[in-house]
Amino acid sequence: MTEFTQDDLLRYLYGETSEKKTAAIRAALRKDAKLRGDFDQLKSLQNKLDQLKASPSKKTIDNILKYAATKQSNVQTH
User: Fold this and answer.
1) Low-confidence residues of the chain: pLDDT under 70
2) Integer Cα distance of 53 and 58 in angstroms
């Protein structure tokens, strides 16, 4: 049986494997409970990552706006 790495499973998860490798991984997932468990764990992590919403802090936004205001005033005075 072919051994698949975590990288192989990640590529499969994101649809980045060749047709041949995709078929081989699908067959292995049906037969190998440990591989299926590893894949399920990666899939779960992917779902959690997809739910994360990242946004800058208020302090970061304020600093950007302050910087932009100083640049804008420098442009207007020249």
Assistant:
1) 1, 74-78
2) 15
Per-domain boundaries in the chain: 6-77
Q: What dihedral angle (degrees, nearest 10) is formed by the CA atoms of 38, 1, 20, 17?
A: 30
Q: How far apart are CA 40 and CA 29, in angstroms?
A: 10
pLDDT digits (tens, 9 = 90+) for 60-71: 999 999 999 887
DSSP, res 72: H
Instruction: Measure the CA–CA gap between 43 and 61, rounded to whole angstroms.
Output: 33
- Residues 9 and 22: their CA atoms lie apart, in Å, by 10
Q: What is the DSSP string of 5-60?
A: -HHHHHHHHTT-S-HHHHHHHHHHHHH-HHHHHHHHHHHHHHHHHHH------HHH
Nearest to 21 by CA among 8, 31, 33, 34: 8
